[in-house]
Fold this protein.
Amino acid sequence: MKLGVVTGLKREAACLSIQTEPNGLSVLCSGADSGRAEKHARRLLEQGCRALVSFGVAGGLAEDLSAGDLVIPGVVVTSDGSSFSPATNWRTRLIEALPKNGMVSQGALFGSEALISSAAEKSSLHLETGAVAVDMESHRVARIAAEAGVPFLCLRAISDDASAVLPDWVVGTVDADGSTRYATVLKRILLNPREIGKLIRLSRDSEAAFATLRRVAGLAGPLLCFA
C-alpha cells in the first residue's frame, strides 16, 4: 500500500521523515500554492498511491484554537460551496491513536486560494463558513481524491491563531519546492522593521505547530493509521 501526502512546506514534510518507508509513503511539497497542490495530488495517484493526505500547518479561525492545536476536520469546505469529507473510519482510527487532551478539533476546515492574513479576515471567514481553520492545499487535494474515488485525510496544526496578523509578503518567501527563501525573509524584514514583532510571534507559534506535527506522526505510525 502506498500513501500519498501533499504538504505546502519542506519543514512540514520533514515532520514525516522518520516515518517514511520504501513504497509506503510518498511526499510532495507544493510551495504553498493551491494549483501546485492539485497537480501534486494527481501525480501521486499516477505514481500508484491509493490514498491521499493533506498534512501541515493551518491558520486558526476559531478563537478557542491556539498555536500548536491539532485540526482533523470532519469536512473541508470552499468558497464555491463545495465540501469534501475525509474517510470516516481512517479519521476515527487516527483520532483514537492520539492522547485525549482536548487539543484536537474536529471542526470544518476552509480551503482558500489566497493567504488569509488579518484577524479581521479570519473572524469574517469563521462567521461566514463556520470553519475553525484555513489552509491553501487541503481543498485541492480533497477534490482530486473525490474525483478518483480514493480515501482522503486532512491533518493540520495551528501555526497562527485567530488573533495573529501575518505580513502580506510571507507567501513570497517560499520556493516552488516548499523551501524557505531565507535571504528574501531577511531583506523584507529590513524593509519592514515594524513587522519584526509579528515575525517573532509567527516563528514561535510555527515551532509549536511543527512540534505537534512531529508528535502526531510518531503516534500515528508510518501510514498515519491508514492500515
Observations:
- The first helix runs from residue 10 to 14.
- The domain at 3-220 is CATH 3.40.50.1580 (Rossmann fold).
- The first strand starts at residue 3 and ends at 7.
- The chain has seven helices and ten strands.
